[in-house]
Amino acid sequence: MNEYVVGIDIGSSKVCAAAGKLDKHGKIQITGITSVPCNGVKRGIVVDIDSTAVGIKNCIEQLERMIDSKITEAYISIPAEICELTLNRGVVAVSSEDREIKKNDVERVLKAAKIIAIPSDKEIIGVIPEQFIVDGYDNITDPIGMCGLRLEVDAQIILCQSTVISNIFKSIKKAGINASGMVFQPLANAMAVLNNEEMKIGALLLDIGGETTNITVFNGNRLIYKDMLPIGGNAIANDISLCLKLPLSEAEKLKIKYGRVIVPNEASGEDFKIKINANYDNVVEVDYSLLIQIISARIEEILCLVKKKLSVNECLDKVSGIVVVGGGIALTKGSIELCKSIMDKPARAGTPEYVGAASPIYSTAVGVVKDVIDSGKVDLTQSTAQESHHKKNDSKSAWQEQDEELYSEENNDGILSKIKGFFTDFF
Length: 427
Hints:
By secondary structure, this protein is of the alpha+beta class. Helices cover 33% and strands 29% of the residues. Among the domains are: 5-80 and 162-193 and 354-405, Nucleotidyltransferase, domain 5 (2-Layer Sandwich); 82-161, Dna Ligase, domain 1. The longest helix has 25 residues, at 288-312. It comes from Clostridium liquoris.
């Protein structure tokens, strides 16, 4: 399995997994991707370890058949809704005699930033540097190679409840997979669907899942705001089930097959009857116009709540564009146009630019793979060179995972890779 990197996204309604490797040109290639239903997770928290483990196992088995290789290790995305961010500053003295800042100094200052009082039921799972400060000069993105006496970092510390993380890893282990590390979900999505220009001028990353809607705002290449709504795509199926007196399973089928959104100033369109089989083989007729009204009302409510949160926290003006990822809402016809209308901002569906993985539902799994490979967390260049006799890959990462030995890899010398997420590896 050294040839592949596997990323797993455990959601409230499904488990997605992606496998990637480097091609002969040193570029990332997604060789397999799949998803299976899973109902063992609610709002990012594992509520049924057995059910979650079965979903993960089924997903991995499908992926193994796609890539024709046995999978024993994977990297996991950590949902944003179970994490919280807190700001802290780390300060160290430059250790070298010539006062040149080296990787070891950056490692020490990041560890110093993690020295913070936290509740006994929580633990630090990662740190995201915002800026480095050398002898009082701030807004430094890459301090390595500079001269100075004092190195500081302003960082966001990622905290999570210990029991929640433990249950996630128990589910992974029960599925027969060793968790090699983890990636913060908003950063994985950003890796997969946002470009450098969007990260700089301001972007709202809207991850609408089954049970939750995660709101993340990036500006100036920094994560400046994170929030969550306890409502997602599953609420639409519930609305259809209640309003039309249908079983929830049939409501979900209707949502997927006929779902669309009424866009403002758009013609009402064709109205017709939909015949479906309800309980006890009873045939029920559903008005199409009523169905899309139900779907539109719920999606509009979600988007209005997002706008309200951004306005209250004074983040709406910092957003220049909106990227929607996640489950079925991002793929629902008319939802992006409705988002543009409500937010009064440009919007698009976030799709990874890889063959076979160009869907918003795969953004997190693909982002995990991309982050791990780009950050140098694993070294795939040796096996790639043996197969293709190509030069060693020199690709650089916008976000970087951290384990107990930060900056231990030799290919971590990209400017962006020094300033992004460094995640703690428990293993």
